[in-house]
Amino acid sequence: MLMPMAEGNGSEREFGGQMPRKDTSDAEAFNRWYIAAIRRSKLADYFEPVGGTMVIRPYGFSLWENMQAALDRRFKATGHSNAYFPLFVPESFLRREAEHVEGFAPEVAWVTQAGGEPLAERLAIRPTSETIFGHFYSQWIQSWRDLPMLINQWANVVRWEKRTVFFLRTTEFLWQEGHTAHRTYEEAQDETLRMLDVYADFAETELALPVVRGEKSASERFPGADATYAIEALMPDGKALQSGTSHNLGQNFARAFDIDFLDQDGERKLCWTTSWGMSTRILGGMLMEHGDDSGLVLPPRVAPTQLVIVPIPARSPEDQATVDGVVGRLVRELGDAGLRVQADCTDNRPGWKFNEWELKGAPLRMEVGPRDVAADQVTLVRRDSRAKEQVPLDGVSRRTGELLDTVQASIFDRARAFLDANTHDVEDYATFQEVMQTQRGFLRAYWCGSSACERRIKEETRATIRVVPFDADADGPGRCICDDAPATQRVLFAQSY
After folding, report:
1. What is the CATH number of the domain that holds 370?
2. What's residue 332's pLDDT?
3. Other CB atoms within 10 Å distance of the CB of residue 292
4. Which of 161, 328, 381, 400 is 20 to 30 Å apart from 213, CA to CA?
5. Nearest one of 318, 347, 316, 344 to 330, comparing CA atoms
């Protein structure tokens, strides 16, 4: 398990010198690498007075903004609109759906006093917003003509976690939460699965993060949902990371909040609702997945700086002026081509700049020196493979775009190969225990559907059912990995964050 944030306090100087190795076989070493990569690249820092919280620094927030924009485009393309709902949720709202309040009770932070006076009713600091959306939907939805209602909000939430880790699990975090209301169950179910596909496409296309889609078991279901679906990614240490969830809430919240409508047949009916969310957690998963011993490796599609230009110092002022002129022209030309480009014109040595931008994960580096200018070319260096090539100046824009696409695909292919190599079919419990102890990874195994078997496996191996994949019955019937009872599906087990 990664070290809690509160135990990693200290200044940036504690991570001075060489980056720790990304040793995925040693949990403590992997933890040191992850924290060092985040802090030294200036993505985030601790907020020590309030344990478990963090500051997302400008470089990290720029990365989140790029991710947010790519996801938001997908929401709007599927008909959703953004809105904003209050941060404070009355306790009576949470209690109107019993399973929901029970599921979130241990994590809720309460406001009991305001303006020096005790409140008549406690207010929860938003752990999620199903109830407050439900309150307003009951007022806004009157007729079948008001449906479907498709609203998303970008917000922060608070869940009082006991063990926290940068991005993966923090007391306060950023996310989006979509909440929709529909006329029929079929429409709600279509929405639930459509948004799961949106998440999977975003993770794989933008973040180069391969994921597995499927349904959660009943014990892992969102409190108050009829069904929960998720995308799961596999981290380099063999643990799974739940990276996005989509819930079919049935009519549970509609019943609790009187969300009904006059249907075409003249009868009043309850709506069918859904909710779905993705948070900064997936940002942490992306950093873990792609980084190496030198620091971050960011996918070009979301990297704050896709290309950094490093001028190589010239011996004479005249030659330096020529180099600077070429660098300035390239920044304008590549920026006009739609690339996020930055020239590092600080007075640090080129070697220092190379290391700094490798640490920060910039996908491409361009070196421009007197010799390059004399030869009418530049040198391009890939962050993922460190491969170098000389490119004529008149072809720089085209070749840079091609290389960024190549790096994006290469990063994904490498992660996909890791996922495939670490997904194992397991036929008996002894092998299951051995693989989970020595290798971890995703284990595809038969499960009879018994909650007792699910609990036993978790207690003895720390593995949980991550999802029941959509192709779970592809292999036909078998025997449960735990009690040898008849089983119809292979489910996906893993230890997880």
Report:
1. 3.40.50.800
2. 97
3. 17
4. 161
5. 344
